[in-house]
Amino acid sequence: MPSPALVRFALTAWYAFQLLERANEPKPRDSPEIRSGDPSADRILLLGNGPCHGWGVLTHQLGLPGQLARALRTRTGRACDVDYVGAESMNVRSARAWLGDRDLESYDAVVIVVGVNDAIRHTPVATWRSALTDLIASITPRLRPDAKLHLVGMPPIRSIAGYDNLVGRLAEPQRRRLQDETTAIIRELGLPELIELGPSGVTPEGGAPVYAVHAATLADALAPELVLRAASTRRPALPEAPAWEWSGAGAVLAQQENGGTPALRRLAERAQRRFKVEFAVVSLVNDDRIWHAMNTEVFPPSVPLHLSFCKVTLEEKAPVVVGNTALDPRFADNPLKQLSFINFYAGVPLEDSAGKIIGTFCLQGSRPKSAARFPIDELREMALEAQSELRRHEVPVAH
Fold first, then answer.
1. What is the CA angle 35-37-41, rounded to 5?
2. Confidence tier at 398 by pLDDT (50, 70, 90)
3. Which residue of 10, 33, 292, 313 could cross-link 347, Cys pair, CB 3.0 to 4.6 Å?
4. What's this model's pTM, rounded to 2 decimal places?
């Protein structure tokens, strides 16, 4: 019988390549913020993956955030704003980094929806308990006294499209084990009862109905406490869109939904062919996050800088080649590395016209390569092309 470690390795590899195969499936590409424009609206933060991600729909309005805002308005008679933080590649160990130092005092409820990919990859129960407890401990002191933290259970794995197979059968017992552990943690900490989700069944042809069902389940649990909140409750303003540190970031990232600017897309495709890697990416650093300027069919629009592979290039301020990330201590404990199955990384820093580092041009591949024999000069030349394209979008400084 295979060892648990070998099973986890195999399932993690399968999950990573499953995400690659699903790269072209419909999923939201718009802002994960549902805004009513009403300053007295109830405010909900969704932190999660799985049902939150939005497989099968092209906008978060039809995904869980939008459906939840509408379901709560129906039940409370008040407007509702919903923000979503996370991505399909987020797991329980990386959730705290995804949340970062976001101000939570503006929210009336924070809802954690994690675990599907942890169940699929057989995250050990002890790891789950440690990471989930740590996540809860990082959130609860940042909430207002009248705000609540809710944990949501995972839908049955085999009910999710693409998982009614051997992987789903292997993952379902682990889902139940992780769910039992979550229930135990909730009781120990005195949190509201676990919100149980029914079967999923999201398909590329239409995920909106199941999100409406999940939203109704969440709204039934959240509405009673929101009704008790006085409309006059004073709360900080909701987080605004990021202020870009580099003047050209807004123009470049506005083209994320189309896969990036045509010049950057062509450059990425050429680099992927030349260096025989799955991905070439231009990334821009802003505050505590890295924003991807292309390949957002696979990569989330942004990831916490703490988790980004490009963090090593930005820290070195020089080209970096990592032949095998599995053997490099800088990647050893990175939860994103464990989910992505990226074993080769090479990156070159990019500068604005004033010489300030604004991001990276990087390669990521599943197969290790010899760092000593890698043609770094060719990568530098392509990085200069990317840098020139970025500088075209800079906003001239007024004198």
1. 80
2. low
3. 313
4. 0.89
